[in-house]
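[RESIDUES AND BACKBONE]
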Amino acid sequence: MTIFLALYLVTMVLVTLMVKEKIMKEYLRTFEEVAASILRKASDQERSQTEVYEELKQKAAKEALEAIGEERENHEESEGSGEGIFEDSSAAVTGGTEKWNDKARKEFYQNLVNEYVLSSANPDLMISAGAYDKNEKLLAKSCDTIGDTMYTADTSGICNGPYILDDFLTFEQKEELAEYFWKSQQSAEDYTLPEKYRILIRTSSDGQELYDIYVQELTWREGEEGGEQAEDQYVDPFMNSIVISTTGTKIDYATGAETGEEKVFRETDSKIVWEWANPDISGGQRESGEIKTPAMGFPYMFQGSYEKWHRWSSSEFLHEFPKEGNFSWNAGEEVPDLGLYPVKEMFYIGARYQLKIGLIDDPFAYLDIRMEESPWFAAFDYMKSLYLIGLLLTSVCIFLLVVIFEDAYKQQMALEETRRDFTNAMAHELKTPLGIIRNFSENLMEHNMEEKRDYYLMQIIGQTEEMDRLVAEMIEISKMDSKDLILRKEPVSFRELIKEEMVRFELPADEKNLQIKYQEEEDFLVEGDREYLGKAVWNLLSNAVEYNVLDGRILVRTEAKCCSIENTGEPMKEEELLHAFDLFYTGNESRGGEGKHMGLGLFLAKKILDLHHMSLTIENTDGGIRTVIRK
């Protein structure tokens, strides 16, 4: 059992290690692709802005030269006129690129470093990124946000955020807000119910400042719009309107048609379950603020779970971007190195790329892109089915092994019991002839018994022959129990075999005046060891003669599939029939009986036939006993 468990554990550890290495390689390959994608977007943006600047510069210079020519034609004195025109052209270039200033660059990079972690379409890999300007000053980093992004600004052009939550909330407050958002997402996940929680923000009218954050718990009732009088319907205090929500429909991607049954819900009540107020905002400012429904930027919550977001947000490695970067690379390499870093959490590993945006010798900016993942946990998750199957198979093997060992133990105990009974029986059987020999030997020592000397000697010789027969049968039984026994395969005719063995019983058969008859419908042909099969037949014929009556008969019948030996005599009792093939069973308390049968004959015959995959049965007849051999 211990060996199987150890083998299971070693196998699972080795397979898990191989799976972990494969997953780690896949993680690093995906991380390289993501880093290249972020770098490409940043480079394209910087390059496009540089090209715009150069085009504007060239256009302005051309316009300035044309203006100078015109000025010279219109004025006889042209001194100083060109200088003013060049100042105007410089102002035009500056005005044309004022959109790509420090603020615009910072907003772009903030959206860029958050784009991957907020998208549900990207690979499920925990990544964060930090962007630095050409002076290695931090511009933006991946973070939790609330409010508009460059993709969600309203049509008025006012952008309410995004506001970085770490600038306003403690980590515990951010956890609470994230949990409400996750619950809201889960409640409306199947599109059949409206959201349970609504998150709102209050901002300045220009969207530059964040005043408050609210979480409303909403109560809805299903029903058609306009089912009540307008004055009786609930007006949401923040939205300042009656709120209607429709659910239950989806858009079929293949056809573009709406599917599902539409349901209409009306908001009937709401209450504030969580709120945060900016302590730097006065009461007057707050009253002038505007309520907005913001976009929530909790990384990995859209494609993952609250737990995955929490793991990402609490990782020190993914968020330790210093305000001043420290970018360095190994000399002599054409591509940046991928750095691997141990992290505090067990089974996790960190990876990092430091990249230049734009020209290598004069970059526009820098990127610090990081990944933290656990290939071990991914391998465990991938292997969980195999663990279960392996454990099940190991348990089955252990169970079978226990059963096999138990059977072997029972067989061993049965064999030991058989050997013990065999030894006791042999001691008992040998005791009788040894006692006879002793008595006759003592009689021979008395010289007044000379007239019986020959009789005593014949009895002693007869008993030694009986002992020799017992020992020979013991040896045969021992051979048949040996694993080294090899039976020859040869055609054997039972009709001929029985007749050959019957010759050895002519004298005792004549002494009892037995009539021997043969009924041969077909020959009983088998393949086996002729010598051992002859011993089995001899024991059966020996019993047929020994337990027969005077003037009795023996009937031998052979058929294609069986052979029987039937003899007259006293029928056996039911218990005797059940134990007829047991070792040394004779059917009475005296093991020897009057004859020489000591319970070995039928046992030996059945054992030989079992080795040849044949059966032996014994049954009573109207006038005696019949033994039957079948294929």
About this structure: The longest strand covers residues 263-277.
